[in-house]
Q: What sequence folds into this?
């Protein structure tokens, strides 16, 4: 079956509009939608109180138009009550500052409390939708990425290094810590590479990238396990971000997934990060195909300026003289 679909956010629209949208999707030839990946506060409005009735109704309306569903776990954007009760869940940036609440992708992937809440919402979703034949698959979270430099991550990084090197003598030898008198005599002395220091040992900097990638792989696995236990017949994916994203090892992240998917934004958001370059998109497709050596999905495809980005197209200049 060829799947052609759209990302849809019924929670953004009056419920009376949902049947109209579903009919328009069907008329356009859509046969699958992705839902709910940023709707945690509606699915769990209070700690431990889950409400899926609204999502059941949205899925039933789509099913009436013969449209299938991919559900996203909503853990990229925690509800306000969770941050209010546990503000240390928020991620610390490379300059040592804890981010404020207000955006998304703003949590620490190694925080055990956040892992527990993320696992619980995935379990509740899987248990509720396991028997729904309209749901054909799952997307874990949304666009994993930014590393965290908090005290929890520093301790986890030190534990990761112990497992990797076995002894401080080996770490000091491999990192060449005699340079600049950086020989470590205790695991607890090892920092995370904050930007408040203008330079870091390259071995430390590289290993922190490896640790951060492993942290997201483990975080993803928690939700994969929760869903597979209850939904063995539904595929599991995660939406990656193409070629050139160097914060994660995508081979490690893709390994436990049934299928790779990625988000293609040809015009991007920030020109210095995503320039207009067809070769970048081609490399993105090739990279995604290579992760599991097989077909992949486009989970997001930019079709115009996004709601929170600005279009900066320059006017086309003509070389012709006016008539």
A:
């Amino acid at each position: 079956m060829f799947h052609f679909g759209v990302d849809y956010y019924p929670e953004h629209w009056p419920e009376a509009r949902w049947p109209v949208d579903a009919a328009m999707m069907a008329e356009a030839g859509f046969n699958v939608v992705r839902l709910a990946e940023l709707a945690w506060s509606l699915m769990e409005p209070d700690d431990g109180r889950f409400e899926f009735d609204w999502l059941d109704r949205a899925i039933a309306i789509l099913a009436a138009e013969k449209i299938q569903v991919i559900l996203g776990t909503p853990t990229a954007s925690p509800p306000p009550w969770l941050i209010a009760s546990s503000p240390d869940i928020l991620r610390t940036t490379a300059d040592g500052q804890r981010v404020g609440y207000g955006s998304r992708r703003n949590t620490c992937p190694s925080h055990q409390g956040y892992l527990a809440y993320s696992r619980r919402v995935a379990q509740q979703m899987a248990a509720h939708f396991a028997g729904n034949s309209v749901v054909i698959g799952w997307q874990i979270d949304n666009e994993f990425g930014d590393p965290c430099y908090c005290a929890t991550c520093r301790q986890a990084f030190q534990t990761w290094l112990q497992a990797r090197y076995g002894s401080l003598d080996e770490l000091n030898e491999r990192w060449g810590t005699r340079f600049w008198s950086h020989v470590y005599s205790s695991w607890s002395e090892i920092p995370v590479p904050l930007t408040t220091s203008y330079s870091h040992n390259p071995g430390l900097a590289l290993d922190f990238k490896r640790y951060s990638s492993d942290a997201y792989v483990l975080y993803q696995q928690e939700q994969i396990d929760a869903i597979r236990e209850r939904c063995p017949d539904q595929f599991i994916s995660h939406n990656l971000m193409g070629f050139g994203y160097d914060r994660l090892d995508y081979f490690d992240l893709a390994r436990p997934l049934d299928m790779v998917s990625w988000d293609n934004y040809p015009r991007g958001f920030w020109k210095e990060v995503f320039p207009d370059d067809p070769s970048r998109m081609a490399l993105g497709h090739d990279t995604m195909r290579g992760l599991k050596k097989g077909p992949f999905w486009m989970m997001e495809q930019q079709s115009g300026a996004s709601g929170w980005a600005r279009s900066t197209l320059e006017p086309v200049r003509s070389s012709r003289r006016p008539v």
Q: What stands out?
A: The longest helix spans residues 202-230.
